[in-house]
Amino acid sequence: MKNLLSPWQFTKLKSDLRRRFEALRETVHQHLLKSDEERARLFADRAGDLEDQSVTELLIDVDRAEISREFDELRDIEAALARLRHQTYAVCLSCNTPIPYDRLAAYPTAKRCLRCQAAYEDAHGSRMQR
Ligand SMILES: [Zn+2]
């Protein structure tokens, strides 16, 4: 089924997604730079101290979790932009009905309508963003 978006809604969502993608890519970039600096400083300040070694590892783990979330979102946005190009955007992956603009305005990377997303999360036992 085809989506029900008007041309301006379509354009608006596309530019929102692009802007978010650019902003997020910059955040990830800064994040990677910053975590490198912090790690280097920790090592330089307290080289050889075993206890601080674990602090450094903890910091690396925290960064990884955060950066991996950011990468997940980048991938989601990329997938949404691909659906836009292939005219499958704004149509529910599960039931093939159009996803309303209100939902997309709040969550432009939505793959499913609210009903199917809830069913999907129940089936997979996860609480993802809607
Ligand atoms: Zn659906």
What does this 3D model show about the protein?
Helix 1 (7-45) packs antiparallel against helix 2. The protein is mostly helical and 130 residues long. It has helices at 7-45, 50-85, 101-106, 114-124. It is 71% helix and 0% strand. It is elongated and about 60 Å long. It has a domain at 7-91. The chain starts with 6 loop residues before the first helix and ends in a 6-residue tail after the last helix. The mean pLDDT is 86. Zinc ion binds next to helix 4.
Beta-strand content: under 5%
Distinct helical segment count: 4
Largest sheet: none
Rounded average pLDDT: 86
| Helix fraction bin | over 70%
Low-confidence stretches: none
**Oligomeric status:** single chain
Bound molecules: zinc ion
What is the terminal-to-terminal distance? 21 Å
Helix/strand order: HHHH
The tally of beta strands, per DSSP, is 0
The helix/strand class is: mainly alpha
Which descriptor suits the 3D outline? elongated
Cα-based radius of gyration, to the nearest Å: 20 Å
